[in-house]
Amino acid sequence: FITNGINSDLVIVAVKTDPSQKHKGMSLLVLERGMEGFERGRNLDKIGLHAQDTA
Predict the structure, then answer these.
(1) DSSP code of residue 10
(2) What is the pLDDT of residue 40?
(3) Nearest CA among 30, 26, 25 for reference residue 12
(4) Cα distances (Å, whole numbers) of residue 55 to 31, 36, 49
(5) What span, in angstroms and rounded, lies between the C-alpha atoms of 52 and 17?
(6) Can you say how many angstroms the Cα of residue 36 is from the centroid of all Cα atoms in its chain?
(7) For residues 30 and 12, is the Cβ–Cβ distance under 8 A?
(8) Which of 12, 36, 37, 48 sits most deeply, having the most CB atoms within 10 A of its CB?
(9) Are 29 and 12 in contact (CB under 8 A)?
(10) What angle do CA 22, 24, 30 make, to 5 degrees?
């Protein structure tokens, strides 16, 4: 879950690109709103914390 993720225009995602390299096999991807294949989730209905959107 990403707090206020529905409001973001830019997201940085940590991904494992080479499992054999342990921590050196990690990469950061920068995704912009509107990029092909990237979609932000919907706001979740919650009992409390209505001031913070969770997607």
Answers:
(1) E
(2) 77
(3) 30
(4) 16, 19, 13
(5) 32
(6) 15
(7) yes
(8) 12
(9) yes
(10) 115
Q: Which two tokens stand for residue 7?
A: 């409001």
Tokens found for residue 46: 């919650």
DSSP 3-state assignment of 52? coil
Amino acid identity at 12: I
Extract the tokens encoding 31: 């995704």
- CB-based contact 15:27 (threshold 8 Å): yes
DSSP 17-34: S-GGGGGGGEEEEEEETT
Cα separation values, 26 from 11, 13, 35, Å: 16, 10, 22
